[in-house]
Amino acid sequence: MKLLPTIFKRQLISYASSPETYLNVAVFLVLCTVLGLHTQHWMERNSSDLQAFFELHPWLYLLLIPTLSTQLWSDEHNASFSNMMKILPITSAERVIGKFMAAWVVCSIALILNFPIVIAANYLGTADNSIIASQFIASWLLAGSYLAVGSFVCVLTHQRIVIFLLTLGLLLTASGLSSALDALEHQAPIWVIDSLISLNPILRFSTMDNGKLTLHDSAYFISIIFFFLSATTLTLNYKNR
């Protein structure tokens, strides 16, 4: 893993030098603030947390994550660059983890830029900062799991529009499990419902977003990240044989 920091820095510079990154982050922040204030009526709730804003993140990530994912492997689709990467002593795991961490840092920055909302909540005197901290962590873990899925999709195809649509489709499918559970509530065995609930990232995020940050739910998102990054690494190794 000696060259992992190099891969990380290179990908981070790639994001920083792309106007697309700034546009995507700006759209995420604007939508989060506007929808939270006007659609969720945060001011009228008199709530001690920022659930009105964070409960929108699973859906707003459907816009942010696919666009960030399309940038992950775009530079390596060039034939000469790809051949150079094969010559250098860089493992597939280093490339996958380094690029993923850079994308996760961009998501972290987008989250941190929500700090004016936290300041406003504290200024109004109703903030419970321990709950708000757990909501930030929950959103951060959710973004990481979405990015891991996006990273896996990126190694399957070189077409940016296909990457975007496949990533969006997979994340929408995961998000749509809630509707499927409602439809199956009185028609399927309890164990089937419980199994689907345990696999539904939106329901788990909702629990954590309420301030109930548990090790079990955190481990769930970390396991998703580990699984899809491992799948990405194995796919790269197979394609490079």
Protein architecture, described:
This protein has one domain (4-239). 78% of the residues lie in helices and 0% in strands. It has helices spanning 4-16, 19-39, 42-45, 51-54, 57-70, 79-87, 92-112, 115-123, 129-154, 160-175, 177-184, 190-199, 201-209, 215-239. Helix 2 (19-39) runs antiparallel to helix 5 and helix 5 (57-70) runs parallel beside helix 9 (129-154). The longest helix has 26 residues, at 129-154. It is globular and about 60 Å long. The model is unreliable at 190-196 (pLDDT under 50).
Helix/sheet category: mainly alpha
- Unreliable residue stretches: 190-196
**Whole-number tally of structural domains:** 1
Number-wise, the strands total: 0
Tally of separate helices: 14
Radius of gyration: 19 Å
* Percent strand: under 5%
